[in-house]
Amino acid sequence: MLKAMKPLKAAFLFMALMATTAASGEYPEAQISNGQIEAKIHLPDAQNGSYRGTRFDWAGDIYSLRYKGHEYFGRWYENHDPKVHDAITGPVEEFTSNGSSALGYDKAKPGETFIRIGVGVLRRPEDESAFRRFGTYEIVDPGKRTINKTAHAIDFTQEVNGPNGYSYVYRKTVSLVRGKPEMVLVHTLRNTGREPIETSVYDHNFFVIDNEVVGPGIVVDFPFDPKAVADLKGIAELKGRSLVYTRDLEKGESVQSEITGFSNSAKDYDFRIENRKSGAGVRIRGSHPIEKINFWCIRTVACPEPYIHMRIEPGDEATWQIIYDFYTR
Question: What SS3 string covers 81-134?
């Protein structure tokens, strides 16, 4: 875990990081390494950040992670616009409430505000009748953000005081384990408001391993016998405990399905994504039981999306982690 920095030191570090990237004309960023893994991370910033959409948590936008000469992340979409809902890379989280809505949205009248955890306080448009999950909303208050960094880890904290009794402190730490090809994401969400926070969260896992086209070279392994709810269109199929592809996806094609077959034990939060051509892979393990799994892929990226659910009473907090083990064959 990171050692706490004094506020002045943390603020100075953040301004220094911003100044460095501003001078080079790029987005604010930081780099961490444990001697085996090198990761480059875009930093959250309401004015200049690489991602300013309102769907995903702004913390931990990893745009490059290299291990033994292999690249695990990268841009999987064609054109970059910071305010597009999915113009983001790496293992990023989305928080949802009441199905696919946002925290407090149902209580917000048109023109009033609600919360997206990891983003901040947003405004509901006057003419909006239903929540737009993939829409980009006006950000009324991005909250107070603090960033602390060491050589091998970076810690993000966001404090948000929202409407209708909803407030929180959210902390996410991206840590590269010393002596191992391993990355750990540790999350803590503390309810500082008057109302319970009930939310589901998943990691989108935008892995782009060595830029391999999604097809027979990419395999996703599950620890249980998976079953697809939707039609895989003859492009993908489940063989035993693996999701494989019959051919390369073409531009514009996608496959999406909920995956069932897991138990209520956290041991089933254990996946592998491999590029069989380059021999690079990653194992993904979570600390909590799975609520549901969505699987989505296009030509450039294949993403298992395991959800977990939590209810946090006022004054309480929830902690969860995801472990990424990188390997080569």
Answer: CCCCCCCCCECCEEEEECCCECECHHHCCCCCEEEECCCEEEECCCCCCCCCCC
